[in-house]
What we know:
Oligomer: single chain
Helix content: 55-70%
Largest sheet: 4 strands, antiparallel
Number of helices: 9
Amino acid sequence: MLSLFHQSARALTMLAFLLPATPYIAFSETQPLSLEIPGEWSLAQAVEYALTNNPEIHIALERIASSQAMATAALSATLPTVTLGSEYSQTDNPMYSFGNILNQGAFDNSIDFNDPGRTDSLALQAMLQYRLYDGGKTRAEIEQADATKRAAESRLGAVHHQLAYEVVRSYYNIRQAEEMVDVRNAAVASIEASLAVGRARYEEGDLLKEDILNLELQQARERENSIRSRHDFDLACKIFWNLLGLHSQGKGTLPEIVEQQEVPEQFTHAARKELEVIRDQISAAEAALSGARSTEKPVIDSYARYQYEYGTVLGESGDSWQAGVRLNYSLYNGNRTEAEISAAQARLAEMQAMQAKIDLALDLEMQQAEINYMQTLERLQLTAKMVEVAEESAKLSRTRFQEGVILASDLIDTEMRLTDARARRASAKAENRIAIANLRRATGAGQF
């Protein structure tokens, strides 16, 4: 039970891995609402609460909102842009002043071209622009944004599976710690009963002082173990409430008995969300490569502009329009395009290699979960027999000690073996439940 803290740390590390540190935009409307805290929890309720209230879920939802915003921004490139502008200016520059006269329709033959005088201009302008062709860059950006959004959604599913498993595991750690408290308390009660018998025998002159001291030393050891077990139980509870996104325990009672979870029918990792995440990331990398290659092609834009101009000095006004098509083609940009394509190709190759790595890791994880489960089944059988034998042996040893047949050291050894057997039994039961939950996680199945 001393490893509970380290287990919790590993759980948080796994969740942090599933939520890589990427910039995101906060969208308050995506914040999940906290569920009402029940007076008596079921394990399924605890999992549901964690999947709603744990901060990791909030982070994942915000990243989905961010990727949705980026997808919307990419899609906006397929639509025309409309801008409005206004400007007021005065000038006596012959060229600009003469332009104002022409734009306002105020030209007459009396104007001196070299010195047309001071003019002003209040111009209002509306402009529409639409990209006709960009070599496929816009489509590539849309595909990349969509793939990034799907990856964020798949990552949320992976966080769900991992967090649900951590809640279930934490619950069974609580039950194991609770049972260990009972085991240690029983050991204290047993050694105290034996100590009372020993003192009675000592008063009768039938037992050495050394035996009494050994029993008192064992009593102190068992009391220390009992204190540790209570602390382990408190720590296990705090880890559980922390996973639920709560600050402390005392948030209602936990279920004493939980229905046994079903073992998956097939042991395969094909349904794991992590595989969907990497597939979506590969799609995004492929789209990014297409976008990089699109810069080798020309860009064609169309535009239309309308302008109304009024001059307060001349008291005249006029309007005009302009429309056209513009083509831009980069002949040379210092090999920047080639560098961007190479970088995109390397990124794609990295993602493909990462896919192979993740597939191997998940396959190994699945095999480890299966082996661990089979081991827990064997341990359940062995520890049941161990407790049965140890209890019978302890019963006989207590009787023989009371009759003065065995030494105190022999009784202490027997009691320690009984405590060890009960502790192993408690551990085996908890680990079997945890192993089933881990199998469900490793196969991508939900906990409930």
